Every structure is written in C-alpha cells, then in structure tokens.
C-alpha cells in the first residue's frame, strides 16, 4: 500500500477475531458493502496464533479488493490483547485517521453504518460513539431469552448519553487513546471479560463525551449455546463480578474494602426491587433473575471468586507459549 493511500484514510475499522473464519468473512463482506464516500481502512487481528483460520479467511477476502487493510496475528491470547493490538496497529499504520471503529466477528454492519457513525461524531464533536446491536438468534428462542436484560441495548433517538458499555459497535476518536495511554484495555480483564466496560468507565471519568447514534445499526448472530438459562444466569453473575472489579480498581481510598462491601449490600437490597419490576414487566422468571445474580456476582467477587469464561486453559498450550514477535505474521495492502 502506498504512503499516499495511507495518508488519505479518514477512519479505520478494527475487527478482533478468534476461531470464527466464517463469521469474520460475513463481517468483512458487510464492511465492503458500505455505502459511503469516506476513505476507510480495515484492520483484522487474529488471536489464535496456533491455527489462524480467521486471518486466512480475512486475507482471502481483503486481498481481492482495493481497500487499505492489514491482517495481523496477535500471539498473546486474550480479548484485551487483541483489541489493544488492533487499535495500536490502526493508529500507527494510518496516522491521518481520526476515527477508529470496532465491530465483532459475529456481527454484520448495515450499509450506512459507517457513514452514520462518522456523521454523528463530526456533527456533535463526540469523542466516543455507540449504536444499536440487534440480536439475531441462531435458533428459535422464548420471550424469556429475547427479553433478558443481557440482550437489551440503549434505545431511543440519537443523543448524548452518559456512557456506552461495549466495543461491539463503537467509535473512538484518536484523542481518547492519546489521553489514556499507555493503558488502553486492561489485560487483567482478558479472561474475565468486561475490558470494554472498564475502558469506557475510565473514559467517562476522564471527561469524554459519549453519543448514541440510533441509525448506526449492527446485527449480531447469537449462537444457540448463548440462549440457554444456564448460560444467561452465569453471564449475569459474571457481569456483577466485572462491575465489582471495576469499582475496586477505581476506588483508591484506604477504606475501599468497607465502601465496596456497603455497596454490595445496597446492591443486593435494590436487586430485589429490580427483580420484582422485571417480573411484573416481562411476566417471566428468567429475566427477573438478572439483577439478583449480578449482586451475587459482586459479593462472590469480593471474596476472590471470579469466573473465567475465557480462561487460557481452553487455548492450545502452543499458542499460550508463543514466542512470536509483535511484528510477525502480518499481511498488508
């Protein structure tokens, strides 16, 4: 890729991928179908160095088009490692770009997603933006699942919001990274999850503005195993654990432990009222368990019990022990 082509890029779309070659292919095709005059690039970061099928799938698609791109393998397993690598590569390779967007490898962007997100950011001056992630389930699901709070999102018209919580449909201005460096996504959340929640919590504390763009829509494919009551209830507990860890990281006063325990007790009490409200609204038990299980997750985390759904033991040992250097296994055009 010529330097002048790099210099013309206004936005970079980042995709971390792990063992979803077909998924990342669908994601990329949706990006190649964007209806926009914006000059954009794509950075794909493969996080399975042992068997980088996602990188192969990405290069097969991107190698045939004229869009500036890079496909990189991150040997350090973990979602935060992959995200950090994606944003770092994007900023370094495309120094003229101000906007960096992220989409997951199980998501598909609507044709005007990019133009809507950038237009909102430019017209409002927003440094961070988010948009709807509409779930499409692989299997038929009950209303207990479709109405579960875990599958909800911020709704309503385009407007300023206090904070967004996920990177599955987000925009981040270059200024945000400059302010928060050297710590971007905290790798302590690699296997717990929630690194995006913690990152945006720090962005909020730093005074950045968040905007919600109703028109920047992404569709997410939800696998069948993520629709079972067991998975949803475990995820609720994990969300509470993540919230506790984020609170613990932010509170630095000597009495932090006491403050957090008080917050845990208050959270548990409030969760009962929230559960009753959800039960009355949805007429279903499963969604109503969410606030209570979140509180339980907070309490168990305070005693050192943290779920590790993305634990390294599930990754082949050869990958975890990889000695690949950061610059290896890169394709670029």
From TrEMBL:
Key words of the record: Transferase
Domain of life: Bacteria
GO molecular function (one): transferase activity
Keyword match Transferase: yes
UniProt xrefs under InterPro entries: Glyco_trans_2-like, Glycosyltransf_2, Nucleotide-diphossugar_trans
Residue ranges constituting the Glycosyltransferase 2-like domain according to the UniProt record: 13-177
CDD domains in the record: Glyco_tranf_GTA_type
Annotated protein name in UniProt: Glycosyltransferase family 2 protein
């Amino acid at each position: 890729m010529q330097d002048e082509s790099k210099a013309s890029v206004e936005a970079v779309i980042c995709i971390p991928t792990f063992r979803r070659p077909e998924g990342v292919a669908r994601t990329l095709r949706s990006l190649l179908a964007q209806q926009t005059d914006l000059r954009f690039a794509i950075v794909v970061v493969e996080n399975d160095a042992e068997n980088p099928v996602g990188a192969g799938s990405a290069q097969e698609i991107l190698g045939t088009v004229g869009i500036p791109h890079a496909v990189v393998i991150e040997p350090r397993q973990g979602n935060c490692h992959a995200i950090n690598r994606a944003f770092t590569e994007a900023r370094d390779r495309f120094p003229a770009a101000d906007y960096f967007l992220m989409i997951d490898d199980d998501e598909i962007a609507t044709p005007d997603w990019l133009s809507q997100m950038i237009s909102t950011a430019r017209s409002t001056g927003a440094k961070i933006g988010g948009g709807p992630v509409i779930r499409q389930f692989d299997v038929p699901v009950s209303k207990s699942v479709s109405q579960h709070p875990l599958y909800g999102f911020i709704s309503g018209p385009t407007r300023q919001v206090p904070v967004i919580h996920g990177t599955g449909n987000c925009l981040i201005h270059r200024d945000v990274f400059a302010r928060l460096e050297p710590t971007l996504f905290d790798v302590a959340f690699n296997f717990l999850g929630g690194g995006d929640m913690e990152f945006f919590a720090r962005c909020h504390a730093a005074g950045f503005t968040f905007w919600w763009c109703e028109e920047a829509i992404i569709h997410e494919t939800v696998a069948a195993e993520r629709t079972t009551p067991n998975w949803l209830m475990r995820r609720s507990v994990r969300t509470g654990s993540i919230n506790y860890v984020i609170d613990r990281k932010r509170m630095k006063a000597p009495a932090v432990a006491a403050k957090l325990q008080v917050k845990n007790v208050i959270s548990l009490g409030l969760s009962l009222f929230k559960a009753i409200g959800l039960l009355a609204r949805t007429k279903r038990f499963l969604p109503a368990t969410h606030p209570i299980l979140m509180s339980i997750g907070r309490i168990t985390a305070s005693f050192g019990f943290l779920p590790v759904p993305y634990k390294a033991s599930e990754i082949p040992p050869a990958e975890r022990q990889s000695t690949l250097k950061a610059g290896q296994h890169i394709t670029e055009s």
